[in-house]
Design a protein that fits this description.
The chain has helices at 2-11, 51-64, 72-75, 79-92, 103-114, 129-138, 150-159, 183-193, 215-218, 247-256, 258-261, 268-283, 286-304, 324-336, 366-383, and strands at residues 28-31, 34-38, 96-100, 120-124, 141-145, 166-171, 196-200, 228-231, 241-245, 316-322, 339-340, 343-344, 354-359. With 386 residues, the protein is an alpha/beta fold. The strands form 4 sheets. A 4-stranded parallel beta sheet has the order 5-4-6-7, sandwiched between helices.
């Protein structure tokens, strides 16, 4: 049975395999005995290998060990967990925060805690898989609205029973298209129709907004969006997820979110690294400046080559190629020319929208970006794609 299923995936150019690399994630990696430019990492600010972040993880490991032992409700909260939650609360300007083992686990726990059977969830069509899974776990009725389409969302809100508990869900920065949710309009609709709004700001935290607080800061909506989730594994260069919001909400989630209650806490080294990453983000705004400069250079180069991109305004720059086979071939040829940028195919993206999802970081040099664009020009010439 498994052999047949794998062959079907192979025939459809949808088979995924693990690719061994031989170095830490950075602007380049060692792969197959050579150095290649990496344009597939979410380490937007280059903090994964920042000396202070690495040192914080090392010190915490020596002091507290490699693991947390159990759920925090079972074996207690270690100082690095409490320190990180305090740092996140200050960073996000909320009353409280709560750590989860991953952003995926945060969504799986928080969304079903917010709404359940009898309620209604209205989610953007392009929300992350963790959001979709969480919606199904909640046992609420689940509908999707067309991507970024507030008119469609409003029609769904109008057609429901007026007193029905309703949760609107969106990403802040959409992970596969790189565009932003129309948060001002979504907030207005939530307020007008008495719905809750849940924002997954995994890809906005650390890079969006004047101080990197995220997409909500970008739109100056911090007073109107009382809670949201984020991740430590993108711009913060570490691992884990979090919820920020009011004291009451956090206490409620501690007592109701199964993915918090029944999961071992983050390793203390991970929490310590993330706290230090927040300090670096505050202290070194030039990292965001370099990121946006690099993003513009790569974006301008892609457009000059005639690449088709969705309306991205972030460091996520997807070049649309259509079918999975074309995207796979394109990625293979790019790698042959020294650029590692993976093909994104269904079910990660809708059928017919397979792509190369380029992501740029603050640590890429202008020479690396120009070299990648040169490789891309060669691949376009070789394949006839784009």
């Amino acid at each position: 049975m498994f052999r047949e299923k794998l062959q079907q995936l192979r025939d459809q150019s949808l088979l995924r395999v693990l690719t061994p690399v031989e170095s830490a994630t950075g602007s380049s990696i060692h792969y197959g005995g050579r150095e290649v430019i990496l344009l597939s990492s979410n380490d937007y600010l280059g903090l994964t290998m920042h000396p202070e972040v690495v040192q914080a993880a090392r010190v915490a490991t020596e002091r507290y060990g490699t693991g947390s032992g159990a759920s925090r409700l079972v074996s207690g909260t270690l100082p690095p967990h409490a320190q990180l939650e305090t740092a996140l609360t200050i960073f996000k300007g909320t009353e409280a925060s709560l750590l989860f083992g991953a952003g995926y686990l945060a969504n799986l726990g928080v969304i079903p805690a917010l709404i359940g059977s009898g309620g209604l969830i209205l989610a953007d069509r392009l929300c992350h898989a963790s959001v979709i899974d969480a919606c199904r776990l909640s046992q609420a009725d689940f509908r999707v609205f067309r991507h970024g389409d507030c008119d469609h969302l409003e029609s769904l809100l109008r057609s429901r029973t007026t007193d029905r508990s309703t949760l609107i869900i969106t990403e802040g920065v959409f992970s596969m298209d790189g565009d932003l949710a129309p948060l001002p309009d979504l907030v207005s609709l939530a307020e007008r129709y008495g719905a809750m709004l849940y924002v997954d700001d995994a890809h906005g935290t650390g890079i969006m907004g004047g101080t990197g607080r995220g997409t909500i800061e970008h739109f100056d909506l911090e007073r109107r969006i009382p809670f949201h989730m984020g991740t430590l594994s993108k711009a913060l260069g570490s691992y884990g997820g979090f919820l920020v919001g009011t004291h009451e909400l956090v206490q409620y989630v501690i007592n109701t979110a199964r993915s918090f209650m029944f999961t071992t806490a983050l390793p203390p080294a991970v929490a310590a690294a993330s706290s230090t990453a927040l300090t670096v983000i505050d202290r070194e705004p030039e990292r965001r400046a370099r990121l946006w400069s690099n993003r513009q250079r790569l974006f301008d180069g892609l457009k000059a080559l005639g690449c088709t991109l969705p309306p991205t305004v972030s460091p996520i720059l997807p070049v649309l190629l259509g079918d999975a086979a074309s995207a796979s071939t394109f990625a293979e040829r790019l790698l042959a020319h020294g650029v590692y940028a993976t093909a994104i195919r269904p079910p990660t993206v809708p059928d017919g929208t397979s792509r190369i999802r380029f992501t740029v970081t603050s640590e890429h040099t202008t020479d690396q970006i120009d070299e990648a664009l040169h490789a891309l020009r060669l691949v376009i010439r070789e394949t006839g794609l784009v």
